[in-house]
Amino acid sequence: MTNFKGFQHAELPLGPLTLLTGLNSSGKSSVLQGLALLHQSYASGDLAQLVRDEHGFLLNGELVRLGTGRDVLNEDFLGDEPRITLAVTEDAYHYEWTVGYEAEQNLLPLVSTRSPATEDLGPERPEGDATVNPAYFTAGFQYLHADRITPAERYPRDHQVAISRGFLGVRGEHTVNYLRHHAGDEVPEGPLRHPKAAEPGRLGDQVVAWLGELCPGVNVQTAVIEGTDTVRLSYGFGSTGTRRRPTNVGFGLTYALPIVVACLTARAGGLVLLENPEAHLHPRGQTAMAELAAASAAQGAQLIIETHSDHVLNGARLAVKRSVLAPDQAVVHYFRGNGAGSEVSTPKIDENGLLDQWPHGFFDEIENTLDQLLD
Ligand SMILES: Nc1ncnc2c1ncn2[C@@H]1O[C@H](COP(=O)(O)OP(=O)(O)O)[C@@H](O)[C@H]1O
Ligand SMILES: [Mg+2]
């Protein structure tokens, strides 16, 4: 990307599983927003063809609400003219979109698109043919913001969003309805299948088994609230199966539910963006969420996770050590912002799950405080 928010220019290698870590306001969410911005512009038809002024980056939509041109153009933009470029390289192709600047507009007009092949693919695809798009535009996309659903009496029942499109909502608000409808769906064989699930291939049972990592013995039920456009969620505990409303159950379970469903339902070519999957979870549960995300990546989906959790990092390292993921499939970026641009370093995980570098400030707070305590 070039001239997008805090980045003058940045190129970030992404793996099947990528962790974005680092200081507050250092640009982690901006990376996710760039990918989401492309998706929402594509989904609304704004990237489909090059018609100047009428198509471009749709700054405010279902996935992100970024404001106007003034908000997203880097303050010290590179180049003579204010232009923003977002690009994605995937396998043999590089896709690139450049828009112009309108300070007060929320649709930034496309100036150019490019999608050159990065390898020689023969004559099938002429240079400049922008009709092919990255897989994630169409192969399944979820983006769960840091601010997600909290325990409630009811959740929306929107057939079009949850059932037809399979979109969980940026707050996970459609998860309960999705689960109600899709509980019987197949979870493919592999590391995604939790060994404790009652019926190993059934989505509903896999959700219960993975939630059991957060709260052993928990059970989940969804139902329509008759005569309304809402659905209900309830939890059961232990063998007695007493049902409880989410409002009487710990916050963390409901907060994690969309993460669990997003990871279990992502498939090859799909992209899942997660902000702080660790929120409201105890340390062991945080590690389990990383293990689940790694399993999802191992089965062909791509996950990009913004996290402040050592336990999420360690869960990813464990997944590599246990050969769920190859070392080069788990990518870690550490962002250090200084307000005027971001600096990114990329510690590598080896086959034993060890990191080749620990930049200053990168998950070293336990050592720092221990040193002071023992001083
Ligand atoms: N138009 C802009 N020009 C320059 N910097 C910007 C612009 N918009 C946002 N920023 C900077 O980008 C950063 C946004 O960080 P964000 O991606 O939300 O961080 P994180 O998710 O790492 O906490 C902030 O430091 C903010 O000052
Ligand atoms: Mg953020």
Automatic annotation (TrEMBL):
Entries under Pfam families matching the protein: AAA_21 (PF13304), DUF3696 (PF12476)
Tree of life domain: Bacteria
Gene3D superfamilies referenced in this protein's UniProt entry, alphabetically: P-loop containing nucleotide triphosphate hydrolases
Domain DUF3696 as annotated: residue spans: 326-373
Domain ATPase AAA-type core per the UniProt entry, residue ranges: 17-314
Protein name per UniProt: DUF3696 domain-containing protein
Organism of provenance: Streptomyces fildesensis
